[in-house]
Amino acid sequence: MAEQKYRKFYVDWWEIKKSTIYGAVLMVCLIVGIGAGGWWVWKSNWLIDKLNDNKIPKDAAQIISFEGDVRIIRLTTRATERVTKATYVQAGDTIQTQSDGRAQIRMIDGSMLSIRPNSTVVIRDSSSLLGGTSVRVKLDDGQIRVKTEDQPDNSNNVVEVKETENRLLAQTEASFNINEKNNSGEIRINRGGVESNIGGEKKVIKKDEYVAFSKNKINTREKLLKPPSLREPSSAAQILSRGGNADVSFRWQRSDASSSSYHLQIAKSPFFVSNGIVIERESLSSLSFTLGNISPGTYFWRVKASSNAGQSSDWSEPSKFTVVKNQKGDRITASDWNVENVAGKVYIISGSTKAGATVRVLGRETFASADGTFRIQISSPSSSVPVEIYDDKGNRSRFVISLKSGKVIR
Questions:
Q1: Does residue 266 fall inside a structural domain?
Q2: 84 and 216, same structural domain?
Q3: Domain boundary among 325, 351, 369
Q4: Among 129, 90, 137, which Cα is nearest to 111's?
Q5: Which terminal Cβ of the chain has fewer Cβ within 10 Å, N or C?
Q6: In a domain? residue 342
Q7: Which of the two residues, 328 and 245, has the higher pLDDT score?
Q8: Is the model's pTM score more than 0.90?
Q9: Rounded to 5 degrees, what are φ and ψ at 29?
């Protein structure tokens, strides 16, 4: 039998200095830090944004915010692009918003162009020369709002609507609309003024004026009609149904004496897209409307006014309400109350309650996080405030909190 051979291994133990250990730990921390920083740079698209900044052409306008489906048709390629945070706009490009889309664009003269849903806008000019700027947009359909600040004398900001050219003056806020029903153009001036060229005749439209025009002439010129003020249901109101569906009464207040009729929309979408509208009523003569048998869910509503001359106001700001089925009606508990005085009459109220519950204080809302904690900032001259807490099942509670002690008074 062959003699078995074994290999022997010997390990030498070395003394390791503390400085070596500290150096190794520092090196590991440095590698982890570099890796985390690289991950953050990649995740936040910081490098991409910087590269895109270098690629943005001279005199390009910047899209600073957008919602929903917004697209751009490039003049150079005729290709259609979906808007992202890195998108820029050049002269000749066409911007299209779908039923849920809207965008805000900062033009090269510092003016803000707000594009409403279902609108098409062409950037006709965006150029600078000898310290001045030339901004020109054309509204093909839909509605836009333009806001200018201080402008030098050698700058022009022009909006084309149908047959008209409208030069916005400094410190102006105006909206431009194409009325599809009568195929007319409309201009509303909230601040400042606009020099309009209609049919070769120049007109100055001033603050709080409304002008409608078609076929190269002004059809209507009158005081700007203000949108109604919504009253009930109040913003973020929760309406309890009894046994199933609920009857909801809508009330609004006349904001202008010349209002003669009202247009009401109730929808399940904050964008009031056509397939999300629950009910629509036009030519309402009263300041209220009751809709019966509304099923549980979240809804949005808005109203606009019309005058006898045919002018329609802008829509009121939408208001949200929720119909909930009162299944339990249990009281929601809350604890760990704390009130922090930030400055003057400004406070931060925090606490802990049911995860996902809505916390409402003086018209402001927040949601309790997954661990039930919440923080909400308010402003109040009083020494105490009511706090409402509720969920989507109809459970609710009401507390009165002292802003001095942070304790529940009742």
A1: yes
A2: yes
A3: 325
A4: 137
A5: N
A6: yes
A7: 245
A8: no
A9: -60, -40
Chain CA centroid to CA 56, Å: 26
Q: Are residues 136 and 278 in the same domain?
A: no
Q: What tokens appear for 306 in the block?
A: 């019309």
Q: Is 177 in contact with 170 (CB distance < 8 Å)?
A: no
3-state SS class at 255: coil
Q: State yes or no: pLDDT of 105 exceeds 90.
A: yes
Determine, yes or no, domain membership for 146. yes
Is residue 103 within 8 A of residue 136, CB to CB? The reply is no
* Same domain as 211, residue 64: yes
* Residue whose entry in the numeric block shows the structure tokens 């070395």: 14
Burial class (CB in 10 A: 0-12, 13-18, 19+), 101: buried
The CB-based long-range contact list for 70-75 (8 Å cut-off, 24+ gap) reads 70/95, 70/96, 70/97, 70/98, 70/101, 70/102, 70/103, 70/115, 71/95, 71/96, 71/97, 71/98, 71/101, 72/96
The first and second tokens of residue 374, run together, are: 């919440």
290: CATH: 2.60.40.10
**Range(s) of the domain holding residue 382:** 334-402
Least confident residue range of 54-68, 137-151, 165-179: 54-68
Q: Are residues 281 and 157 in the same domain?
A: no
Tokens 């965008």 sit on residue: 103
Report d(CA 273, CA 15) in Å as an integer: 75
Q: Are residues 268 and 218 in the same domain?
A: no
Identify which of 226, 249, 230 has the alpha carbon closest to the alpha carbon of residue 305: 226
pLDDT higher than threshold 90 for residue 298: no
Least Cα distance to 344 among 383, 381, 301 occurs for 381
- Which of 233-242, 260-269, 322-331 has the largest mean confidence? 260-269
Letter string b/e over residues 75-87, b meaning 16 or more CB atoms within 10 A of that residue's CB? eeeeeeeebeeeb
Number of domains in the chain: 3
Last residue of a domain, one of 223, 250, 280: 223
User: Which of 294, 304, 315, 316 has the alpha carbon at shortest distance from 238?
Assistant: 294
Residue 299 shares a structural domain with residue 281: yes
Q: Are residues 88 and 148 in the same domain?
A: yes
In a shared domain, residues 149 and 218? yes
| 96 within 8 A of 135, measured Cβ to Cβ | no
Instruction: Collect all residues with Cβ–Cβ distance below 8 Å to 269 and sequence separation of at least 6.
Output: 100, 276, 277, 300
